[in-house]
Design brief:
Elements: E1 4-13, E2 16-26, E3 31-35, H1 42-50, E4 57-62, E5 65-66, E6 77-80, H2 92-102, H3 107-120, H4 136-148, E7 154-158, H5 166-183, E8 186-191, H6 194-200, E9 203-208, E10 211-216, H7 218-223, H8 228-233, E11 240-247, E12 250-253, E13 258-259, E14 273-278, E15 283-285, E16 291-300, E17 304-311, E18 316-322, E19 332-337, E20 343-346
Parallel strand pairs: 3-8, 3-9, 6-7, 7-8
Antiparallel strand pairs: 1-2, 1-4, 4-5, 9-10, 11-12, 11-14, 12-13, 14-20, 15-19, 16-17, 16-19, 17-18
Length: 354
Protein backbone atom coordinates (compact mmCIF):
# COMPACT_ATOMS: atom_id res chain seq x y z
CA UNK A 1 0.00 0.00 0.00
CA UNK A 2 1.15 3.53 -0.68
CA UNK A 3 -0.05 7.13 -0.45
CA UNK A 4 0.04 9.13 -3.67
CA UNK A 5 0.22 12.93 -3.74
CA UNK A 6 0.01 15.05 -6.88
CA UNK A 7 0.97 18.72 -6.39
CA UNK A 8 0.33 21.30 -9.13
CA UNK A 9 0.95 18.68 -11.80
CA UNK A 10 0.89 19.97 -15.38
CA UNK A 11 1.46 18.51 -18.83
CA UNK A 12 1.74 20.25 -22.16
CA UNK A 13 2.75 19.19 -25.64
CA UNK A 14 4.29 22.31 -27.22
CA UNK A 15 1.53 24.91 -26.78
CA UNK A 16 -1.26 22.39 -26.04
CA UNK A 17 -2.04 22.18 -22.33
CA UNK A 18 -3.34 18.67 -21.62
CA UNK A 19 -3.16 18.72 -17.80
CA UNK A 20 -3.57 22.28 -16.55
CA UNK A 21 -2.90 21.90 -12.81
CA UNK A 22 -3.93 18.94 -10.73
CA UNK A 23 -3.68 18.56 -6.95
CA UNK A 24 -4.76 15.21 -5.48
CA UNK A 25 -4.15 13.29 -2.26
CA UNK A 26 -4.93 9.58 -2.61
CA UNK A 27 -4.60 7.78 0.69
CA UNK A 28 -3.00 4.40 1.17
CA UNK A 29 -5.41 1.58 0.36
CA UNK A 30 -7.99 3.77 -1.39
CA UNK A 31 -9.69 2.84 -4.65
CA UNK A 32 -9.67 6.10 -6.62
CA UNK A 33 -11.38 6.48 -9.99
CA UNK A 34 -10.54 9.12 -12.59
CA UNK A 35 -13.69 9.74 -14.61
CA UNK A 36 -14.59 12.20 -17.32
CA UNK A 37 -15.42 12.54 -21.02
CA UNK A 38 -13.05 11.51 -23.79
CA UNK A 39 -10.12 13.89 -24.12
CA UNK A 40 -10.33 15.27 -20.57
CA UNK A 41 -6.79 14.06 -19.69
CA UNK A 42 -7.52 11.14 -17.38
CA UNK A 43 -5.39 8.55 -19.23
CA UNK A 44 -2.54 11.07 -19.64
CA UNK A 45 -2.64 11.72 -15.90
CA UNK A 46 -2.48 7.98 -15.20
CA UNK A 47 0.52 7.58 -17.53
CA UNK A 48 2.26 10.44 -15.75
CA UNK A 49 1.77 8.68 -12.42
CA UNK A 50 3.12 5.44 -13.89
CA UNK A 51 6.21 7.13 -15.35
CA UNK A 52 5.30 6.29 -18.94
CA UNK A 53 4.74 10.02 -19.57
CA UNK A 54 6.92 12.83 -18.25
CA UNK A 55 5.39 15.77 -16.39
CA UNK A 56 5.91 19.38 -17.45
CA UNK A 57 5.60 20.91 -13.97
CA UNK A 58 4.68 20.00 -10.40
CA UNK A 59 5.52 16.91 -8.35
CA UNK A 60 4.33 13.33 -7.99
CA UNK A 61 5.17 11.72 -4.65
CA UNK A 62 4.73 8.11 -3.54
CA UNK A 63 4.89 7.65 0.23
CA UNK A 64 6.57 11.05 0.55
CA UNK A 65 9.24 10.40 -2.09
CA UNK A 66 9.13 12.59 -5.20
CA UNK A 67 9.36 10.29 -8.23
CA UNK A 68 9.40 12.81 -11.10
CA UNK A 69 12.73 11.51 -12.41
CA UNK A 70 12.29 7.87 -11.39
CA UNK A 71 11.86 5.47 -14.37
CA UNK A 72 8.56 3.60 -14.63
CA UNK A 73 10.17 0.23 -13.85
CA UNK A 74 11.52 1.53 -10.54
CA UNK A 75 8.35 3.17 -9.16
CA UNK A 76 6.91 -0.06 -7.77
CA UNK A 77 3.66 0.33 -9.70
CA UNK A 78 1.80 -2.07 -11.98
CA UNK A 79 -0.46 -1.08 -14.86
CA UNK A 80 -3.33 -2.95 -16.52
CA UNK A 81 -4.03 -1.69 -20.04
CA UNK A 82 -7.21 -1.52 -22.08
CA UNK A 83 -5.63 -3.73 -24.76
CA UNK A 84 -4.46 -6.40 -22.22
CA UNK A 85 -0.90 -6.13 -23.71
CA UNK A 86 -0.20 -9.86 -23.29
CA UNK A 87 2.62 -11.64 -25.09
CA UNK A 88 0.79 -13.76 -27.71
CA UNK A 89 3.62 -16.29 -28.14
CA UNK A 90 3.84 -17.03 -24.41
CA UNK A 91 1.64 -19.24 -22.25
CA UNK A 92 -0.44 -17.75 -19.48
CA UNK A 93 2.11 -19.08 -17.00
CA UNK A 94 4.96 -17.31 -18.79
CA UNK A 95 2.96 -14.10 -19.15
CA UNK A 96 2.47 -14.09 -15.39
CA UNK A 97 6.07 -14.90 -14.56
CA UNK A 98 7.86 -12.74 -17.15
CA UNK A 99 8.03 -9.56 -15.06
CA UNK A 100 9.32 -11.43 -12.02
CA UNK A 101 12.01 -13.14 -14.10
CA UNK A 102 13.23 -9.74 -15.28
CA UNK A 103 13.57 -8.72 -11.63
CA UNK A 104 15.71 -11.85 -10.99
CA UNK A 105 13.17 -13.23 -8.54
CA UNK A 106 14.09 -16.75 -7.32
CA UNK A 107 12.38 -19.49 -9.34
CA UNK A 108 10.72 -21.07 -6.31
CA UNK A 109 9.17 -17.73 -5.35
CA UNK A 110 8.00 -17.13 -8.92
CA UNK A 111 6.31 -20.52 -9.00
CA UNK A 112 4.57 -19.88 -5.66
CA UNK A 113 3.36 -16.37 -6.59
CA UNK A 114 2.07 -17.47 -10.01
CA UNK A 115 0.21 -20.40 -8.46
CA UNK A 116 -1.40 -18.25 -5.75
CA UNK A 117 -2.49 -15.50 -8.15
CA UNK A 118 -3.81 -17.97 -10.71
CA UNK A 119 -6.01 -19.61 -8.07
CA UNK A 120 -7.18 -16.21 -6.76
CA UNK A 121 -8.28 -15.12 -10.25
CA UNK A 122 -9.60 -18.57 -11.22
CA UNK A 123 -7.21 -18.99 -14.15
CA UNK A 124 -5.21 -21.88 -12.70
CA UNK A 125 -6.72 -24.23 -15.31
CA UNK A 126 -5.50 -21.95 -18.11
CA UNK A 127 -1.79 -21.71 -17.29
CA UNK A 128 -0.62 -23.73 -20.30
CA UNK A 129 -2.80 -21.92 -22.86
CA UNK A 130 -1.78 -18.94 -24.97
CA UNK A 131 -3.73 -15.65 -25.05
CA UNK A 132 -5.22 -16.47 -28.46
CA UNK A 133 -6.97 -19.47 -26.91
CA UNK A 134 -8.71 -17.39 -24.23
CA UNK A 135 -11.93 -15.40 -24.11
CA UNK A 136 -11.87 -11.65 -23.51
CA UNK A 137 -12.70 -12.06 -19.85
CA UNK A 138 -9.99 -14.68 -19.39
CA UNK A 139 -7.40 -12.46 -21.10
CA UNK A 140 -8.37 -9.61 -18.79
CA UNK A 141 -7.90 -11.83 -15.74
CA UNK A 142 -4.43 -12.75 -17.00
CA UNK A 143 -3.58 -9.06 -17.48
CA UNK A 144 -4.74 -8.32 -13.94
CA UNK A 145 -2.86 -11.37 -12.65
CA UNK A 146 0.36 -10.15 -14.27
CA UNK A 147 -0.01 -6.95 -12.24
CA UNK A 148 -0.98 -8.68 -8.99
CA UNK A 149 1.90 -11.14 -9.10
CA UNK A 150 4.40 -8.27 -8.91
CA UNK A 151 2.96 -7.16 -5.55
CA UNK A 152 3.12 -3.45 -6.48
CA UNK A 153 2.66 -0.45 -4.21
CA UNK A 154 -0.13 0.89 -6.43
CA UNK A 155 -2.27 -0.66 -9.16
CA UNK A 156 -3.09 1.47 -12.20
CA UNK A 157 -6.03 0.47 -14.45
CA UNK A 158 -6.51 2.23 -17.80
CA UNK A 159 -10.10 1.52 -18.94
CA UNK A 160 -9.53 -2.24 -18.48
CA UNK A 161 -13.11 -3.31 -19.21
CA UNK A 162 -13.91 -1.25 -22.30
CA UNK A 163 -13.30 -4.18 -24.70
CA UNK A 164 -15.73 -6.49 -22.90
CA UNK A 165 -19.45 -6.95 -23.53
CA UNK A 166 -21.94 -5.41 -21.09
CA UNK A 167 -22.66 -8.53 -19.04
CA UNK A 168 -18.98 -9.42 -18.65
CA UNK A 169 -18.14 -5.83 -17.73
CA UNK A 170 -20.51 -6.04 -14.76
CA UNK A 171 -18.98 -9.34 -13.61
CA UNK A 172 -15.39 -8.10 -13.98
CA UNK A 173 -16.26 -4.85 -12.21
CA UNK A 174 -17.34 -6.85 -9.18
CA UNK A 175 -14.23 -9.02 -9.38
CA UNK A 176 -11.89 -6.01 -9.39
CA UNK A 177 -13.76 -4.48 -6.44
CA UNK A 178 -13.48 -7.78 -4.57
CA UNK A 179 -9.77 -7.97 -5.44
CA UNK A 180 -9.25 -4.53 -3.92
CA UNK A 181 -10.93 -5.59 -0.68
CA UNK A 182 -8.77 -8.71 -0.57
CA UNK A 183 -5.42 -7.05 -1.35
CA UNK A 184 -6.09 -3.66 0.30
CA UNK A 185 -3.66 -2.01 -2.13
CA UNK A 186 -4.01 1.53 -3.42
CA UNK A 187 -5.73 1.37 -6.82
CA UNK A 188 -6.28 4.07 -9.43
CA UNK A 189 -8.80 3.29 -12.13
CA UNK A 190 -9.52 5.31 -15.29
CA UNK A 191 -12.90 5.10 -17.00
CA UNK A 192 -15.36 7.24 -18.95
CA UNK A 193 -18.23 5.18 -17.48
CA UNK A 194 -19.66 6.99 -14.46
CA UNK A 195 -21.57 3.85 -13.37
CA UNK A 196 -18.23 2.03 -12.99
CA UNK A 197 -16.95 5.00 -11.01
CA UNK A 198 -19.97 5.11 -8.69
CA UNK A 199 -20.02 1.38 -7.96
CA UNK A 200 -16.29 0.77 -7.48
CA UNK A 201 -14.68 3.88 -6.01
CA UNK A 202 -13.85 5.04 -2.51
CA UNK A 203 -13.06 8.43 -4.07
CA UNK A 204 -13.80 9.85 -7.52
CA UNK A 205 -11.91 12.60 -9.35
CA UNK A 206 -14.12 14.12 -12.05
CA UNK A 207 -11.92 15.61 -14.77
CA UNK A 208 -12.75 18.07 -17.51
CA UNK A 209 -10.38 19.79 -19.90
CA UNK A 210 -7.27 18.88 -17.89
CA UNK A 211 -8.60 19.96 -14.49
CA UNK A 212 -10.21 18.20 -11.53
CA UNK A 213 -13.74 19.59 -11.22
CA UNK A 214 -14.48 17.77 -7.95
CA UNK A 215 -12.86 15.10 -5.77
CA UNK A 216 -14.81 13.16 -3.17
CA UNK A 217 -16.80 10.04 -2.36
CA UNK A 218 -19.39 8.83 -4.89
CA UNK A 219 -22.32 9.99 -2.75
CA UNK A 220 -20.71 13.38 -2.06
CA UNK A 221 -20.51 13.98 -5.80
CA UNK A 222 -24.04 12.71 -6.35
CA UNK A 223 -25.67 14.61 -3.47
CA UNK A 224 -23.57 17.79 -3.46
CA UNK A 225 -22.12 18.42 -6.92
CA UNK A 226 -19.79 21.42 -6.94
CA UNK A 227 -20.94 22.63 -10.32
CA UNK A 228 -23.27 21.99 -13.25
CA UNK A 229 -20.76 19.79 -15.07
CA UNK A 230 -20.37 17.33 -12.17
CA UNK A 231 -24.13 17.37 -11.59
CA UNK A 232 -24.78 16.45 -15.21
CA UNK A 233 -22.02 13.87 -15.46
CA UNK A 234 -22.69 11.87 -12.30
CA UNK A 235 -25.98 9.98 -12.37
CA UNK A 236 -27.80 7.97 -15.03
CA UNK A 237 -29.96 9.18 -16.68
CA UNK A 238 -28.34 12.59 -16.42
CA UNK A 239 -29.73 15.36 -14.25
CA UNK A 240 -32.37 17.63 -15.80
CA UNK A 241 -31.68 21.37 -15.94
CA UNK A 242 -34.46 23.96 -15.93
CA UNK A 243 -33.99 27.70 -16.49
CA UNK A 244 -35.41 29.68 -13.57
CA UNK A 245 -35.38 33.32 -12.46
CA UNK A 246 -35.63 34.82 -9.00
CA UNK A 247 -38.78 36.86 -8.34
CA UNK A 248 -40.11 38.59 -5.25
CA UNK A 249 -42.43 35.64 -4.63
CA UNK A 250 -39.83 32.93 -5.21
CA UNK A 251 -38.37 31.08 -8.15
CA UNK A 252 -40.16 31.12 -11.47
CA UNK A 253 -39.62 28.81 -14.42
CA UNK A 254 -38.34 30.79 -17.37
CA UNK A 255 -41.23 31.49 -19.78
CA UNK A 256 -44.02 30.17 -17.64
CA UNK A 257 -44.85 28.31 -14.44
CA UNK A 258 -44.17 29.28 -10.83
CA UNK A 259 -42.53 27.63 -7.87
CA UNK A 260 -43.19 30.31 -5.30
CA UNK A 261 -42.65 27.88 -2.41
CA UNK A 262 -38.99 27.40 -3.27
CA UNK A 263 -36.96 29.03 -0.49
CA UNK A 264 -34.81 31.95 -1.61
CA UNK A 265 -31.85 33.39 0.28
CA UNK A 266 -30.70 36.95 0.93
CA UNK A 267 -28.13 36.82 -1.89
CA UNK A 268 -30.78 35.87 -4.47
CA UNK A 269 -31.64 39.31 -5.79
CA UNK A 270 -34.79 39.55 -7.86
CA UNK A 271 -34.15 39.04 -11.57
CA UNK A 272 -31.13 36.71 -11.22
CA UNK A 273 -31.18 33.90 -13.81
CA UNK A 274 -30.26 30.46 -12.45
CA UNK A 275 -30.44 26.84 -13.51
CA UNK A 276 -32.27 24.33 -11.36
CA UNK A 277 -30.93 20.78 -11.48
CA UNK A 278 -33.33 17.96 -10.70
CA UNK A 279 -32.68 14.26 -11.12
CA UNK A 280 -35.20 12.16 -13.12
CA UNK A 281 -36.26 10.21 -10.02
CA UNK A 282 -37.09 13.46 -8.16
CA UNK A 283 -39.81 14.54 -10.60
CA UNK A 284 -43.34 13.38 -9.73
CA UNK A 285 -46.49 13.35 -11.84
CA UNK A 286 -48.99 15.68 -10.14
CA UNK A 287 -52.09 17.25 -11.71
CA UNK A 288 -51.39 20.47 -9.80
CA UNK A 289 -47.65 20.58 -10.58
CA UNK A 290 -46.04 23.75 -11.97
CA UNK A 291 -44.25 21.99 -14.84
CA UNK A 292 -46.22 21.24 -18.02
CA UNK A 293 -44.72 18.43 -20.11
CA UNK A 294 -45.69 17.11 -23.52
CA UNK A 295 -44.61 13.46 -23.68
CA UNK A 296 -42.43 12.57 -26.69
CA UNK A 297 -41.11 9.11 -25.81
CA UNK A 298 -41.57 6.36 -23.22
CA UNK A 299 -39.18 3.55 -22.30
CA UNK A 300 -40.87 0.69 -20.41
CA UNK A 301 -38.29 -1.50 -18.66
CA UNK A 302 -40.71 -3.53 -16.55
CA UNK A 303 -39.48 -2.64 -13.06
CA UNK A 304 -39.17 1.04 -13.99
CA UNK A 305 -39.88 3.38 -16.87
CA UNK A 306 -38.55 6.60 -18.36
CA UNK A 307 -40.84 9.34 -19.64
CA UNK A 308 -39.28 11.90 -22.00
CA UNK A 309 -40.90 15.17 -22.95
CA UNK A 310 -40.65 18.89 -23.65
CA UNK A 311 -41.67 21.76 -21.43
CA UNK A 312 -43.61 24.78 -22.68
CA UNK A 313 -40.37 26.75 -23.01
CA UNK A 314 -38.85 24.04 -25.23
CA UNK A 315 -36.54 22.49 -22.64
CA UNK A 316 -36.48 18.69 -22.53
CA UNK A 317 -36.93 16.62 -19.37
CA UNK A 318 -36.74 12.96 -18.45
CA UNK A 319 -38.70 11.44 -15.57
CA UNK A 320 -37.82 8.11 -13.95
CA UNK A 321 -40.80 6.30 -12.46
CA UNK A 322 -40.77 3.00 -10.60
CA UNK A 323 -42.92 0.24 -12.04
CA UNK A 324 -44.86 0.73 -15.27
CA UNK A 325 -46.91 3.60 -16.63
CA UNK A 326 -50.06 4.12 -18.68
CA UNK A 327 -48.94 7.60 -19.78
CA UNK A 328 -49.11 7.80 -23.57
CA UNK A 329 -46.86 9.48 -26.12
CA UNK A 330 -48.20 12.95 -27.14
CA UNK A 331 -50.16 13.23 -23.89
CA UNK A 332 -49.72 16.27 -21.67
CA UNK A 333 -48.86 15.80 -18.00
CA UNK A 334 -47.89 18.04 -15.11
CA UNK A 335 -44.97 17.50 -12.78
CA UNK A 336 -43.90 18.67 -9.37
CA UNK A 337 -40.38 18.73 -7.97
CA UNK A 338 -39.01 17.24 -4.77
CA UNK A 339 -37.59 20.63 -3.79
CA UNK A 340 -35.34 19.24 -1.04
CA UNK A 341 -33.40 17.33 -3.68
CA UNK A 342 -33.13 20.10 -6.28
CA UNK A 343 -29.90 22.00 -6.94
CA UNK A 344 -29.31 25.57 -8.09
CA UNK A 345 -26.41 26.63 -10.33
CA UNK A 346 -25.16 30.03 -11.38
CA UNK A 347 -26.05 30.59 -15.01
CA UNK A 348 -22.66 32.03 -16.00
CA UNK A 349 -20.07 30.18 -13.90
CA UNK A 350 -21.96 26.91 -13.52
CA UNK A 351 -21.01 26.78 -9.82
CA UNK A 352 -23.46 25.46 -7.26
CA UNK A 353 -25.43 28.39 -5.89
CA UNK A 354 -25.45 28.93 -2.14
Amino acid sequence: MAKLVLSKVKKHFDQVKVIKEVDLDINSGEFCVFVGPSGCGKSTLLRMISGLESISDGTIAIDGEVVNGVPAAQRGLAMVFQSYALYPHMSVRNNLSFGLENLNTPKAEIKQRVSEVAKMLQIDQLLDRRPGQLSGGQRQRVAIGRAVVREPKIFLFDEPLSNLDAELRVAMRREIAALHKRLKNTMIYVTHDQIEAMTMADKIAVLRDGRVEQFGTPLELFNKPANRFVAGFIGSPAMNFIDVVVTDSGLQIDKGGKMASWPTTDNMASGIALEMGIRPEDLVINDDGPIHLEVTEIEQLGSECYIFGNMQNGQSLVLRKSGQTDVAVKSKIRLTIDEEKAHLFDKESGLAYS
